[in-house]
Write a structure and sequence with these properties.
With about 475 residues, the protein is mainly β. The chain has five helices and 35 strands. Its EC number is 3.1.1.97.
Length: about 475
């Protein structure tokens, strides 16, 4: 088994019990310390920065905030907002600006309990967060930036300490909780909170960690004091998909932000483990471990840049799309392309007007000829294609997937947007009329079926990972290039 290489080590004055990455080179560490002679719990939030110098990595402390003991932290990455669960029953919200953490707002949920865990609802903006408490309660909190947060609801969810709570990554109405009562529960905010939607009683010891899969809908990873990490399908919470013995209580787990089969775990008495899943998550093996320390393993996270990469847009049209994305994802570089010379001129004008420095000069790419000599293989993290598939001949769709297979990195994404039929059925009526209109203009045009595109993907080492419903009866299809 490969061993994890140690890059940096620091011994803190207080117990380090949680950690959360914020940017590609910044993370926070929360501490917990019981002051016995004063019967109180204290802690700090330390902000660190990684500085790379040739082959050496230095870790610098940028900021330190003294507070109550910190039990958990979660970052809303797009806004750099940190929700914190503390030992005095508080929900705290910090903002990261200029390498400094500033307390924006706070709400005391229960003065007689500890807040044990927190998570953000998976929406486009920081809005709603959830907290679990030592008295078994859960609380939904509305976040309003610098204004006071509002307690939306609080209810008794478990009979013992609710160690963990987490939102579903695909459905903002769903969230999960686990507790010392050995129960895993699925909640739906639309159904109310008097009773969990589903209760799993299959655990023999407390449930202390869980996370919804980032790429696979319905999949959930759960860690327990019983030293096992289990994968579940939330549509069938009676039998796990796979169960992995990690040799220690699985206190925290984090899915890899890019690879859909890699899980990072903190296993208390048995160190840190990286688990790889195979055969559609049905088998697992520990591929890396680190246990060269004497204390308990409590906190883990991946320090990766979630919002940095290289993107290629096929069929950029006027150039409005690429400018919009470049503005909203400034750490990404964007390469527009078109086959129509008139569009190339329009794209250049939009780029010039935007004054953005992360958009390259548009390329002439014609999917009928597929001349990619100007582009490097395995270069892009993302290929984006908006409203092209249905207004081009089938050959262009075939070429699109061949291009993606050549130009995408392993685990890179191809995203197509537009109207699609599903298993031969095209709905609603407006899409049927649109399809007839397209075919009347050009017999080679028309709305494509998703199964047809799935076949093209399979032939080019890609797989359809997700289908996202969009406004006006359109869909985003997210394909992933398989790992080599």
């Amino acid at each position: 088994m490969d061993q994890i290489k140690l890059l940096y080590h620091e011994v803190l004055d207080e117990t380090a019990d949680c950690i959360e990455s914020i940017t590609s080179n910044m993370f926070v560490c929360g501490t917990y310390q019981l002051v016995e002679n004063e019967s109180k719990r204290i802690g700090t939030i330390k902000l660190y920065e990684l500085v790379k110098q040739q082959d050496k990595i230095d870790v610098i402390t940028c900021n330190e905030v003294s507070t109550n003991a910190v039990l958990d932290m979660k970052c809303f990455y797009r806004e750099n907002v940190l929700s914190v669960a503390d030992s005095s029953g508080n929900a705290l919200f910090y903002l990261l600006e200029n390498k400094k953490l500033t307390l924006q707002s706070s709400l005391q949920i229960d003065s007689d309990s500890l807040c044990l865990s927190t998570d953000w609802c998976k929406t486009s903006n920081p809005d709603t967060s959830v907290f679990s408490l030592s008295n078994g309660e859960l609380a939904l909190v509305k976040y309003f930036g610098s204004s006071n947060p509002v307690l939306l609801n609080k209810w008794k969810a478990h009979s013992l300490e609710a160690w963990i709570v987490a939102f579903d990554n695909f459905n903002s109405n769903l969230f999960y909780s686990g507790a010392d009562d050995c129960m895993l529960k699925l909640w739906d905010s639309r159904a109310g909170f008097h009773k969990a939607l589903i209760t799993n009683k299959e655990f023999t010891m407390g449930v202390c960690s869980l996370q919804s899969h980032k790429f696979k809908e319905n999949i959930l990873a759960v860690g327990s004091y019983d030293e096992h990490c289990t994968l579940w399908d939330n549509r069938y919470l009676k039998t796990p998909i796979v169960k992995t013995n990690l040799g220690g209580g699985v206190w925290r787990i984090k899915w890899h932000p890019n690879y859909d089969n890699i899980l990072l775990t903190a296993c208390m008495h048995n160190g840190f483990k990286i688990v790889q899943y195979m055969d559609e998550l049905s088998r697992s093996t520990v591929i890396h471990s680190y246990n060269r320390h004497s204390s308990l393993a409590y906190g883990v996270d991946w320090l990766l840049d979630y919002y940095k990469g290289e993107a290629l847009e096929i069929s950029s049209g006027s150039g409005q799309h690429v400018v919009h994305f470049a503005k909203n994802f400034p750490k990404w570089t964007w390469q527009p392309s078109e086959y129509d010379l008139r569009c190339l001129k329009s794209i250049s004008e939009y780029i010039a007007e935007s004054q953005l420095d992360n958009i390259f000069k548009p390329l002439l790419i014609d999917l009928n000829t597929c001349d990619l000599s100007s582009l490097k293989e395995n270069k892009f993290d993302l290929i984006l294609c908006i409203n092209m598939v249905h207004i081009t001949p089938l050959k262009c769709s075939e070429s699109l997937f061949a291009v993606a297979s050549t130009l995408l990195k392993s685990n890179g994404k191809l995203i197509t947007y537009g109207p699609y039929s599903v298993n031969g059925l095209l709905t609603p009526e407006s899409n049927v009329l649109f399809d007839l209109s397209l075919k009347s203009q050009n017999a080679d045009w028309g709305v494509r079926d998703i199964s047809y595109l799935e076949g093209l993907a399979k032939n080019n080492n890609l797989i359809l990972r997700n289908t996202v419903e969009m406004p006006c009866n359109n869909k985003c299809l997210i394909f992933v290039r398989k790992l080599e």
